[in-house]
């Protein structure tokens, strides 16, 4: 096959695998605290991550060039992971995705103070339209906002912060530093909390946790392949296919029926996200392309960040500035 189709198919497969990962997380969330699930998910992912990181032949140490930014990004990634796992365990899948889809919008906003990005009128209006979609989903004052909603919003903000910080320091930091620190931090923080929340896990649940690591690795591999074959501006919108999987898995496995406000709000967020992605793909519109260069999924600790990983392996064919 020629053209963008192969890359788009890999992207769709990758996001389908990520959605399956979230279904397993939601299943485990009914019995175990997020700390425990994340700890073992990261534990099972360490062998895979180690093999990948050993490919880094760049001379240097693991000491960051910008320690403050690296710590801030690591903290944001840990918080985003913990909050996303909790949100998936207590909220309907479609509702979580509708909120997490705000991440590219928040990246655009945070790029203003952190990257010095200038957001012009049209993109600014698109961001406001998408954030209004989040308000439609949450309907503050009319529905009861739970800790799960707050966790999903926090995950979106944390993921956006981590992505924008990488935009700021990624060119100067070793890829292995950007990849390893959040992984180790998740393992350490969740391990410290584990004695307080641990519940014995039968073999079948241990297998499910191991499956999350396998699914994250498989999805990450598909996404890398997608970005190698197809322009980022075409691959990035494929993330919104997850709402279809959320509707399907939610109905079949958890008996979830999304409300009209969730669907309308998600549609608003998706529309604004698509506009921003395609507008940033045009030359001269953005100096930093903060959305297009965000390739990581919020709240998937077993999946390494794709941008640094692709640079580490020399796979930059369609990355442009990234």
Give the helix/strand class. Answer: mainly alpha
Tally of DSSP β-strands: 0
**Estimated radius of gyration:** 19 Å
Q: Describe the biggest sheet?
A: none
Q: What assembly state would you assign to the polypeptide chains in this entry? A: single chain
Please state roughly what percent of the residues sit in beta strands, choosing from under 5%, 5-15%, 15-25%, 25-35%, 35-45% or over 45%.
Answer: under 5%
Shape: globular
Helix content: over 70%
How many structural domains in the coordinates?
1
Average pLDDT confidence is: 86
* Low-pLDDT residue intervals, each spanning 5 or more residues: 316-322
Order of helices and strands: HHHHHHHHHHHHH
User: What count of helical segments does DSSP give?
Assistant: 13
End-to-end distance, in Å?
26 Å
Output the keywords.
0% strand; 322 residues; globular; disordered C terminus; 13 helices
Description:
This protein has 322 residues and is mainly alpha-helical. It has helices at residues 5-29, 34-53, 67-90, 93-100, 103-115, 121-138, 147-169, 175-197, 203-229, 232-235, 242-254, 260-280, 306-312. It has one domain (5-312). It contains 13 helices and no strands. It starts with a helix and ends in a 10-residue tail after the last helix. Mean pLDDT is 86; it is low at 316-322.
């Amino acid at each position: 096959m020629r053209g963008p189709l192969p890359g788009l198919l890999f992207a769709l497969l990758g996001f389908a695998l990520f959605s399956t990962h979230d279904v397993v997380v939601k299943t485990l969330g009914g019995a175990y605290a997020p700390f425990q699930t994340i700890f073992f998910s990261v534990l099972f992912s360490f062998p895979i991550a180690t093999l990948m990181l050993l490919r880094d032949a760049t001379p240097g140490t693991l000491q960051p060039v910008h320690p403050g930014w690296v710590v801030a990004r690591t903290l944001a990634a840990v918080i985003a992971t913990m909050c996303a796992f909790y949100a998936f365990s207590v909220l309907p899948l479609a509702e979580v995705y509708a909120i997490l889809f705000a991440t590219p919008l928040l990246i655009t906003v945070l790029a203003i103070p952190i990257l010095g990005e200038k957001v012009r009128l049209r993109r600014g209006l698109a961001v406001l339209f998408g954030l209004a979609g989040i308000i439609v989903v949450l309907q503050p004052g009319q529905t009861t906002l739970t800790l799960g909603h707050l966790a999903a919003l926090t995950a979106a903000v944390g993921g956006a912060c981590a992505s924008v910080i990488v935009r700021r320091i990624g060119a100067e930091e070793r890829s292995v530093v950007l990849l390893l620190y959040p992984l180790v931090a998740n393992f350490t923080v969740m391990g410290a909390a584990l004695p307080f929340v641990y519940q014995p896990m039968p073999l079948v649940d241990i297998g499910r946790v191991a499956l999350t690591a396998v699914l994250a690795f498989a999805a990450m591999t598909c996404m890398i392949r997608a970005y190698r074959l197809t322009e980022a501006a075409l691959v990035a919108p494929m993330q919104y296919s997850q709402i279809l999987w959320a509707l399907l898995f939610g109905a079949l496995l958890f008996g979830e029926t999304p409300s009209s406000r969730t669907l309308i709000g998600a549609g608003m967020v998706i529309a604004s996200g698509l506009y921003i992605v395609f507008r940033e793909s045009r030359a001269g519109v953005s100096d930093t392309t903060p959305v297009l260069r965000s390739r990581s999924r919020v709240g998937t600790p077993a999946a390494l960040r794709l941008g640094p990983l692709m640079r580490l392996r020399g796979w930059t064919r369609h990355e442009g500035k990234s």
